[in-house]
């Protein structure tokens, strides 16, 4: 929870953040570490004589010198950074801040970190502080250029030239996306995954397999991956890399960084079985990254051809099982093998979506089987080399029988699993379909690469708890939404609808989350008045969804909360 960055309200088009909002944004960007500059938190904690990496790796350890846990020390470093940037901005305007001297910056640092925390600084420690703070100061004029958004919007209407610029997550180190308002482009698909993303993907694959094995005592045979377009666009293909490594394969790059092929990792080097991967990609990924679907598809077929024991090659095992099912058709063996190796699925060409969200929002379902059927019907189209949206209902259903766990990952706090109905539609729907077809409980996991050096995996139920506590039920987040009146109320209402969607599809929402929604938005007199003044229909929708969850037996509400 401490490491979660909380969004404060909404961005107003063409308006640059000011005051506290500007300082919070700067420190959020300064937290990320790059090869040529330290994180502001590293610079601060090392100036206090602490080991930043050990603190990150062991957040619950207690530090007797400061009488704080390592997690609390990270929190302290963030507050010190906010205080430093606040004081520096008091000494100069945003227009003249770049002229502040190193002496003044260090003076501010000493006055705030002070004798209570600091030791005598070495020249190296002083330089780390200066490098990090100078970096933050350098961002200010770029943030101010947000005002160009409106000007460039009208330039677009007039059909005139708009300067291009890259896209990405600024709180994950992609500072080159500033200033916003430019005609942004994404990535070169042929260079995905990048070597850096490959390193993160390998770590994440091992974390996922280890997490499952420690909980269940065995390896998963088939992992259901939800692969979002934001993974290649914003994380350079960490998720794609994870899928390849899970199967025991790796990308091959040419000298210019283009991925030209995929190769098999020997079992001896891999040190574990090859795990099967059933991959559901969204419509934007399907349309913009066909080469990545082909890369995964090629990896599957290479692994399926290997002469290895089936207990060490679950892809081959499931291909053989599926060929027995398909062998009843009149097709030749090559076609049967090709269909048995389908692993990348999406919606029908020309359509976008998972269908499940429509059924959920329209209350057009009675049993979870209905939602499973919708998910399968919408997503049972295969993609790969020479395969562009071939109907593959039988093949997908056959794979769902062996899925042990469903999974998705996100790379920053820019998004969370309540930000869009697609998250529960694709992932929750995947879980619902796998459980319905297999008749067994399926694990639901979430991957976190906010810190690419320390990727982690947890149960989606834990991620829902984190999102509920740090966003939906967090007073600071709610106050940010309230500043925006009607639209803020819409956002709150939509998030409650998505909580319901996750509960309906994947059963990962604890009762206390629904209790918290009732207590915070419905039972609270002040909040009811705010909704009444700004958007009474949003509150009506919240109450209606809550009543539906009670009627369906999803929310086990006591009489007080029902009233």
From TrEMBL:
Residues 2-561 form the CobN/magnesium chelatase domain. InterPro entries: CobN/Mg_chltase (IPR003672). Pfam families: CobN-Mg_chel. This is Cobalt chelatase. It comes from Aerophobetes bacterium.
């Amino acid at each position: 929870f401490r490491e979660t960055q909380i969004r404060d309200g909404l961005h107003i088009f063409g308006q640059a953040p000011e005051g506290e909002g500007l300082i919070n944004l700067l420190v959020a960007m300064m937290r990320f570490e790059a090869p040529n500059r330290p994180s502001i938190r590293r610079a601060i904690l090392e100036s206090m004589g602490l080991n930043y990496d050990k603190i990150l790796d062991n957040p619950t350890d207690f530090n007797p010198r400061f009488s704080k846990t390592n997690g609390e020390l990270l929190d302290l470093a963030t507050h010190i950074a906010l205080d430093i940037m606040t004081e520096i901005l008091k000494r100069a305007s945003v227009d003249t801040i770049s002229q502040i001297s190193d002496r003044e910056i260090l003076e501010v640092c000493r006055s705030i970190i002070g004798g209570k925390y600091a030791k005598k600084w070495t020249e190296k420690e002083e330089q780390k502080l200066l490098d990090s703070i100078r970096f933050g100061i350098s961002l200010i004029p770029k943030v101010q250029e947000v005002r160009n958004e409106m000007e460039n919007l009208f330039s677009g209407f007039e059909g005139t030239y708009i300067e291009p610029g890259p896209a990405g997550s600024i709180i994950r180190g992609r500072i080159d996306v500033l200033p916003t308002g430019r005609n942004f482009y994404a990535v070169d698909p042929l260079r995905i995954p990048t070597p850096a993303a490959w390193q993160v993907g390998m770590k994440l694959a091992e974390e996922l397999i280890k997490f499952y094995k420690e909980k269940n005592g065995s390896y998963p045979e088939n992992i259901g991956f939800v692969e979002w377009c934001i993974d290649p666009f914003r994380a350079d293909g960490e998720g794609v890399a994870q899928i390849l490594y899970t199967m025991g394969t790796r990308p091959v790059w040419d000298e210019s960084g283009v991925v030209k092929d995929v190769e098999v990792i020997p079992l001896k080097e891999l040190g574990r079985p090859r795990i099967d991967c059933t991959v559901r990609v969204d419509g934007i990924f399907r349309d913009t990254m066909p080469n990545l679907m082909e890369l995964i598809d090629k990896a599957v077929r290479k692994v399926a051809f290997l002469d290895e024991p089936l207990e060490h090659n679950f892809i081959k095992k499931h291909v053989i099982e599926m060929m027995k099912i398909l062998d009843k058709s009149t097709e030749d063996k090559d076609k049967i093998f090709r269909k048995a190796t389908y692993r990348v699925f999406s919606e029908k060409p020309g359509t976008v979506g998972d269908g499940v969200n429509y059924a959920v929002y329209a209350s057009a379902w009675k049993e979870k089987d209905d939602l499973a059927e919708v998910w399968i019907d919408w997503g049972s189209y295969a993609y790969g080399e020479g395969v562009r949206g071939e109907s593959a209902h039988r093949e997908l259903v056959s794979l769902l029988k062996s899925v042990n766990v469903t999974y998705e990952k996100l790379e920053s706090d820019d998004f969370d699993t309540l930000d869009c109905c697609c998250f529960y539609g694709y992932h929750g729907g995947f879980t619902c379909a796998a459980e319905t077809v297999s008749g067994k409980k399926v694990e639901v996991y979430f991957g976190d690469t906010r810190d690419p050096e320390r990727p982690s995996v947890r149960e989606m139920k834990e991620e829902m708890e984190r999102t509920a506590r740090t966003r939906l039920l967090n007073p600071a987040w709610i106050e940010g939404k309230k500043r925006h009146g009607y639209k803020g109320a819409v956002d709150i209402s939509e998030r409650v609808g998505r909580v319901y969607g996750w509960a309906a599809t994947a059963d990962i929402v604890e009762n206390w989350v629904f209790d918290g929604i009732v207590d915070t938005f419905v039972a609270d007199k002040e909040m009811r008045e705010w909704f009444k003044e700004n958007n009474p229909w949003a509150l009506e929708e919240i109450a209606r969804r809550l009543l539906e969850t009670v009627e369906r037996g999803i929310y086990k509400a006591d009489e007080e909360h029902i009233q």
